[in-house]
Design a protein that fits this description.
alpha+beta, Ribosomal Protein L31e, Chain: W, four-stranded mixed beta sheet, 5 helices, 18% strand
Length: 136
C-alpha cells in the first residue's frame, strides 16, 4: 500500500472550459492526472464522495490547486481530499483570545455608530415641499 500526496493544478485545464461545464469536467481531469502520476489506467482511479463534493463546491469556481491523498492497493488508486492532522489544527490555543478581543471591539463599535446616527437626524431636518407653481 503506497500513499502519496499530490497537488493538481486545475487552472491549466478549467480556464479553457465553460463556467457551466466546469463542475462536470473537473472529476474527469482529476482522474486523468492521478492516473498519469500513479501510472495506472483511468478506470482504476476511484474518487471518494468527499472529494467530489469538495471539487464541485469549491474548486470548480475558484480554480485553486487541489491537494489530494492517493492510496494505491492492488492496482486501484483511491483518491481522497488532503486533510491536516487534527493535532496540528488544535495546537494553536492563542487564536481564541484574539477572537474574544475582536468581539469586544465590535461590541463598542455599534454604540459609536448609534451616537453618530442620533446626531445626523438633528442636523438634517425635513424640508417642506415647495408649493407647485400655478400654471396658466
Amino acid at each position: 500500500m503506497a500513499d502519496r500526496l499530490l497537488t493538481i493544478n486545475l487552472r491549466n485545464y478549467l480556464v479553457r472550459q465553460s463556467v457551466r461545464k466546469r463542475p462536470m469536467k473537473i472529476s474527469g481531469y482529476v482522474r486523468e492526472r492521478v492516473a498519469h502520476y500513479t501510472k495506472t489506467e483511468e478506470e482504476n482511479v476511484k474518487l471518494t464522495g468527499d472529494l467530489n463534493i469538495l471539487m464541485i463546491k469549491r474548486h470548480a469556481r475558484s480554480m485553486l490547486p487541489l491537494k489530494v491523498n492517493v492510496k494505491i492497493e492492488n492496482g486501484i488508486a483511491t483518491v481522497s481530499p488532503f486533510a491536516m492532522p487534527k493535532k496540528a489544527a488544535t495546537a494553536t490555543p492563542e487564536a481564541k483570545p484574539a477572537k474574544t478581543e475582536a468581539k469586544a471591539a465590535t461590541t463598542t463599535a455599534p454604540k459609536a455608530a448609534e451616537k453618530k446616527a442620533e446626531a445626523k437626524p438633528a442636523k438634517a431636518e425635513k424640508k417642506e415641499p415647495k408649493p407647485a407653481a400655478a400654471t396658466k
